[in-house]
Specification:
Blueprint lengths: L3 H6 L3 H13 L6 E4 L3 E7 L11 H7 L3 E8 L3 E7 L14 H18 L3 E7 L5 E6 L3 H11 L10 H9 L5 E6 L7 H13 L2 E7 L1 H4 L6 E5 L6 E5 H25 L3 E6 L5 H10 L1
Parallel strand pairs: 4-5, 4-7, 7-8, 8-11
Antiparallel strand pairs: 1-3, 2-3, 5-6, 9-10
Length: about 290
């Protein structure tokens, strides 16, 4: 699989999404249920009320028993993709890739995979000036809409206010919600949104995205850090503060994972330096 920076260098989101997802389409496993379909699954004893057209008369003639032929049919799923497009997602890793760049690639690949499995896919860009929302659709043209929206997404400001998020939580539709975010928040607003979506829509998969230079604290010497959302700055000596930084970071990551699971979310931590395959595996496990 190409690295995230190689995919981004293509400057072609549809092509990058196809490159990432097609490797997973070989040997894909669709979610299935038994019913009236094309692919034979098994026999089961006849029960009063069963459709007699599904009765296997040849087997009945041989055995004097009545059996119903069951087949497997594909089940569709509604997949709701959420992208945190607040200013902190502009943070760049040492490979030059921002969290927003990685998030675009990741959600484009997930959309490609979902649409090719027959799922209805929705996309919401979470911005402070209002939500950008594409309602769920299962047709291939939805991919073009999603790619266009992701390509034009920019990261700015802080997380949307509760009033802006109300239309999302007002909908009661069963879906797998997949949120890509760095979880930088002021007062638990991301957790609050996902908790409400968990209640109204069902399963939530939280993909916690960080840059490798955050995780490994690759900085050297005197450094000035700036909060991309508030503009506040902090000066420190990176070599002296590395251990303290990493202790605080790992503590926060443990707490974030614990909090997510406590609220019923599935949680996975991702790095912008890693291939996108882990996130796709997490999706396929739930698909």
């Amino acid at each position: 699989m190409l690295s995230p920076e190689q995919l981004y260098a293509l400057r072609n989101l549809p092509l990058a999404a196809k490159q990432v997802a097609e490797g997973f389409l070989h040997g894909q496993h669709l979610s299935r249920r038994r019913g009236v379909g094309m692919e034979f699954s098994q026999y089961r004893p006849y029960q009063p009320g069963d459709d007699l057209r599904r009765l296997d008369w040849r087997l009945a003639a041989r055995s004097d028993r009545y059996y119903i032929r069951e087949s497997e049919v594909d089940t569709s799923l509604t997949v709701h993709l959420l992208l945190d497009a607040t200013a902190s997602m502009n943070h760049r890793d040492d490979n030059g890739l921002s969290k927003l760049d990685y998030g675009r690639l990741l959600l484009a690949a997930l959309a490609y995979l979902a649409v090719n499995q027959g799922d209805a896919v929705a996309l919401t860009i979470l911005r402070p000036d209002g939500l950008q929302h594409l309602p769920p659709r299962a047709d291939p043209r939805q991919l073009t809409r999603i790619f266009h929206t992701l390509e034009n997404a920019t990261a700015t400001g802080r997380f949307p206010a509760a009033a802006e998020l109300a239309p999302l939580t007002a909908r009661r539709q069963r879906a797998l919600t997949i949120c890509v975010s760095d979880l930088y928040e002021e007062d638990g607003e991301i957790d609050t949104l996902l908790t409400r979506l968990r209640t109204t829509s069902g399963e939530v998969l939280l993909l916690h995205l960080l840059a490798r230079n955050e995780l490994d604290f690759t900085y050297r010497g005197a450094v000035t850090f700036e909060d991309l959302e508030t503009g506040r700055t902090l000066q420190l000596n990176a070599d002296q503060q590395r251990r303290t930084w990493q202790e605080h970071l790992h503590g926060w990551l443990r707490e974030a994972a614990t909090q997510a699971r406590r609220h019923g979310f599935e949680y996975a931590q991702l790095s912008t330096a890693e291939p996108l395959d882990r996130a796709l595996r997490e999706f396929l496990k739930r698909r």
